[in-house]
């Protein structure tokens, strides 16, 4: 259809089954990378260069591993800004975000959902019908808690925030799990209900209403009273 541009999206697999993501605005040619890992950054940058795109932000879902910090600093020196939750202990961050903040890259937006538990600073990035959950929720279940993590809090984040999305929403995790790299909300809801039946413990079903639209009809994010607009 004339005038309609397909979104630019790439899932990249790295060492130790880590997964990174490239999101791009086809109109302005601006892009972001979510959780770049060692071994995929070069291919991700090549992917952007081949399409004439510029990297504006690096979005972190949790505290980066030590071996990644040097790479992030080199990347930061070339222009992109490093983004993470305000509670992160990583000192190489340019923008510290809160729950419900919105990040702009070109005409695209990503909303930040603070989903603590796996780590206190863990976040999920919401783009269209896709949730980039980092280590909070893998394709086969919750990730392992690390560095101040709390499993009970992690389950609350999954149930109270992630499971409020419609069944068809896709979950793109930060690491491959049992050879799976993507799942949908319906799978997790069904799995939790089955476990509840087996254990005899009532499953606290999350509210299933549609989540707020990340952008209003005029292209501006809704519910902005308590959130910041980054890159607007």
TrEMBL record:
Q: Where is this region: Disordered?
A: 199-232
- List the Gene3D superfamilies: Ribonuclease Z/Hydroxyacylglutathione hydrolase-like (3.60.15.10)
A Gene Ontology BP annotation from the UniProt entry: hydrogen sulfide metabolic process
The UniProt entry, under InterPro entries, shows: Metallo-B-lactamas, Mito_Persulfide_Diox, POD-like_MBL-fold, RibonucZ/Hydroxyglut_hydro
Provide the GO MF annotations for this entry: metal ion binding; sulfur dioxygenase activity
- Occurrences of domain Metallo-beta-lactamase (ranges): 17-175
Q: Which UniProt keywords apply?
A: Metal-binding, Plasmid
Composition skew (Polar residues), residue ranges: 219-232
CDD domains attached here? POD-like_MBL-fold
Recorded protein name is: Metallo-beta-lactamase family protein
User: From which source organism is this entry?
Assistant: Acidithiobacillus caldus (strain ATCC 51756 / DSM 8584 / KU)
- Lineage, top ranks: Bacteria, Pseudomonadati, Pseudomonadota, Acidithiobacillia, Acidithiobacillales
């Amino acid at each position: 259809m004339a005038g309609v541009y397909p979104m630019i999206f790439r899932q990249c697999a790295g060492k130790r089954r880590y997964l990174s993501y490239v999101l791009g605005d086809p109109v302005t040619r601006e892009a972001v990378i979510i959780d770049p890992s060692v071994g995929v950054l070069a291919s991700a940058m090549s992917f952007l260069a081949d399409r004439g795109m510029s990297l504006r932000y690096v979005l972190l879902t949790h505290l980066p591993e030590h071996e990644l910090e040097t790479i992030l600093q080199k990347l930061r020196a070339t222009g992109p800004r490093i983004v993470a939750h305000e509670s992160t202990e990583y000192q190489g961050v340019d923008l510290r975000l809160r729950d419900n903040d919105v990040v702009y890259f070109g005409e695209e937006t990503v909303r930040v959902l603070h989903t603590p538990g796996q780590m206190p600073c863990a976040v999920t990035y919401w783009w269209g019908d896709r949730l980039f959950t980092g280590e909070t929720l893998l394709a086969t279940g919750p990730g392992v808690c690390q560095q101040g993590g709390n499993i009970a809090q992690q389950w609350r984040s999954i149930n109270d925030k992630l499971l409020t999305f419609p069944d068809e929403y896709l979950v793109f995790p930060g690491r491959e799990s049992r050879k799976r790299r993507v799942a949908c909300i319906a799978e997790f809801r069904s799995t939790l209900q089955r476990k509840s039946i087996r254990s005899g413990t009532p499953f606290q079903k999350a509210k299933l209403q549609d989540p707020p639209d990340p952008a209003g009809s005029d292209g501006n994010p809704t519910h902005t009273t308590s959130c910041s607009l980054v890159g607007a």
